[in-house]
Specification:
mainly alpha; Leucine-rich Repeat Variant; about 0% strand
Length: about 190
């Protein structure tokens, strides 16, 4: 499938689980399509960019290794995405990468996701966290930063400060995620000091 063919197919994609699953399965069956999906995702001004994001997220959640050949491209471009409905899947992909790398300890992710790429994720997630973003983007960013902070010590302190500063004026969902992340950080610090 070419870029223009997939671009035209995206006209039929909507937010329903069935549509996202169908197109994600195409990517899983033909992993080279991930490159085209990401190209469309990073056409940041295009109305089909979010649809490509939905497909990428769905495919990566099912089969994270479809992203491996494109980690450099993804991490070098993710900061450019600005449409709300495209930001959510991009931030979720970051969370998936962090969980796979640090919690699940997936050997393929651990050997493929470079320190520079992890640093880009750190910078981008902090940018999303301190800017005016939807709660889902901030929540995924907080989880990503928690996991990154198990490697980069300075992250947890900055993350706690930002969560504390934003806590009072935030939604119930944001506050709930802050409480979870704070608990995780406290547990991590206790384990580290013992």
């Amino acid at each position: 499938m070419t870029l223009s063919e997939l671009y035209n197919e995206l006209a039929h994609v909507n937010h329903t689980r069935n549509k996202r699953a169908h197109y994600a399965q195409l990517v899983i069956n033909e992993p080279s399509l991930m490159e085209i999906v990401l190209e469309i995702l990073f056409m940041i001004d295009d109305p089909r960019s979010p649809k490509a994001g939905w497909i990428a997220e769905f495919a990566i959640r099912k089969e994270i290794k479809t992203l491996l050949p494109y980690l450099e491209y993804f991490t070098s471009k993710m900061h450019t995405v600005y449409q709300d409905s495209a930001l959510r899947p991009v931030s979720k992909i970051c969370e998936e990468l962090a969980v796979s790398h640090y919690k699940i300890m997936n050997p393929e992710i651990r050997s493929s996701l470079t320190k520079i790429q992890r640093e880009r994720m750190t910078t981008t997630c902090f940018d999303w966290l301190i800017s005016d973003q939807k709660v889902a983007v901030k929540a995924y960013s907080m989880t990503t930063l928690f996991h990154l902070g198990t490697e980069f010590d300075w992250i947890h302190g900055d993350l706690l400060r930002i969560m504390e500063d934003d806590y009072t004026a935030s939604s119930a969902a944001f506050k709930a995620r802050c409480r979870h992340i704070t608990t995780w950080i406290n547990k991590h610090q206790k384990l580290k000091s013992s």
